[in-house]
């Protein structure tokens, strides 16, 4: 009877270990593989070493990508991609709205007199003095 409890306890320990350690790791690996399969030309990515760039081409046969990092083209394994940076269409739409808001603000100060900054601001003078001492 005691040996049945021991065997049952060992089986339960293995089941707990599987569901707490191996199952989440498998899900994470599957999620990463889906991300690698979704890579396409023009995606902005962050590599595992912290390099930011834009995908120039994807080679499915060799499982590599060519990354454009400010005009320097580098070839990496697809598995070296840590994160795909999502494109922000909201930011593109917000840019024209900011421009129109800036135009409204530039028209509004014509009604109010401009405030002058005091000529003897110590903060700007101190910055120059400290940089020349070093």
TrEMBL record:
Topology in the lipid bilayer: Single-pass membrane protein
Residue numbers spanned by region Disordered: 90-134
Keywords of the record: Cell membrane, Membrane, Protein transport, Translocation, Transmembrane, Transmembrane helix, Transport
Stretches that traverse the bilayer: 6-22
Presence of keyword S-adenosyl-L-methionine: no
Subcellular location: Cell membrane
Domain of life: Bacteria
Pfam families: YajC
Principal location: membrane
Biased composition (Basic and acidic residues): 113-134
Family the UniProt entry places it in: Belongs to the YajC family.
Record protein name field: Preprotein translocase subunit YajC
Gene source species: Lactobacillus panisapium
